[in-house]
């Protein structure tokens, strides 16, 4: 059992994230006493100085590690900065006390956010590279290899980020249907129906929503269109064609369709994509081990992946991406590296390496029936794949982290130089507005100023709710995107 006792309960979610870096626990209780068994994390913000924090970790009632940390002070009148620096002090302090208790450091130190590259870039822009490096190394305790990774990604992303103007946006179109449910999936996608009525109704609503906003989009330059999911190619050709045609009308230079499941890819569907100007697709094997594919509920084999990859090559898309997941149950570092090598034989322009995240809403999160890789094994898979991909000419170009990732690692998108996906950079770095259509899709308007402001307009997640309320969703986005910069 792990309990937290803090006098800053307003930060408790973030503090629990720090604790979960060390303990594989979903539930962290709040208690007023020090437990006789298990761990108690006792954290205090100083009564006089809100930027000075102390933490003591007790194991079975006895002190096992302690730390104190003082963050740079901020004026209470600067509300966001005041809260940010107090929260930073609390997190760093708890992290350092836990390092002492556990006797081990974490590769990302006390950083728990989704977008470390964004934080690195923003610090770099405001305070220079040396200060950014110092902050990550000396305050957040991030390891040197991770700092080097962030710096190299920031370097690759710079021209894409610098090219954004306030009158540009990206378009996202979501298709929340799949042919089967992967055991690690926590996304609210639905299975395709036999007759396809549900999908048809959904596509009707989606196109209605896009139609309602077309006039507004006319005032912007669309730099990228991304049709994602779910699995867009799970739609029957007729519905797929309607959606892709709607995307093509934005005439964006970059046009991506996530084909995803190899078993949904046919020549007829690739003909549709190619004829409508799609220039990037992804075909995701996740692993090339058939036993693992079966274990994780994918409805295709490795052979079907190779066949789909070969078929797609004939269409000469500008870039093909292939996703892999490290840390799938039953897989060793050798097995994962073998999948990396198999994928490289297909010569894709992009390869994305995800680290398995076990979310509560997934089949893996609900059943405790599998043996997963340890954090050390996952780290080995990550570093060996990075080395192998570097030899093959692939460089990391975007990354993000999620909760509950094995070893608290990261997802990394690799690309051959010049083939980076603009949309992936834009969505992770939040430097370009995104107008998103479909159930669960989140639109973001970026208001560039000295202190960049981002406002969001999410769509309802459930498909019937989205279909019923599509006009309301469109109205909300209209308001957001009509607001002057
Ligand atoms: S293909 Fe993606 S969205 Fe569909 S079930 Fe698998 S993980 Fe979930």
From TrEMBL:
Where do the Radical SAM core domain residues begin and end?
163-395
Q: Which InterPro entries match?
A: Coproporphyrinogen-III_oxidase (IPR034505), Elp3/MiaA/NifB-like_rSAM (IPR006638), HemZ (IPR023995), rSAM (IPR007197), rSAM_horseshoe (IPR023404), rSAM_sf (IPR058240)
Sorted keywords for this record are:
Oxidoreductase
Q: This chain belongs to which protein, by name?
A: Coproporphyrinogen dehydrogenase HemZ
- Please provide the Gene Ontology terms (biological process) for this protein: porphyrin-containing compound biosynthetic process
- Indicate whether S-adenosyl-L-methionine appears among the record's keywords: no
Q: Gene encoding this chain?
A: hemZ
According to the lineage, what is the superkingdom? Answer: Bacteria
Enzyme Commission number(s) from the entry: 1.3.98.3
Pfam families of this UniProt entry? Radical_SAM
One GO molecular-function annotation for this sequence? 4 iron, 4 sulfur cluster binding
Which CDD domains is this protein grouped with?
Radical_SAM
GO terms for cellular component: cytoplasm
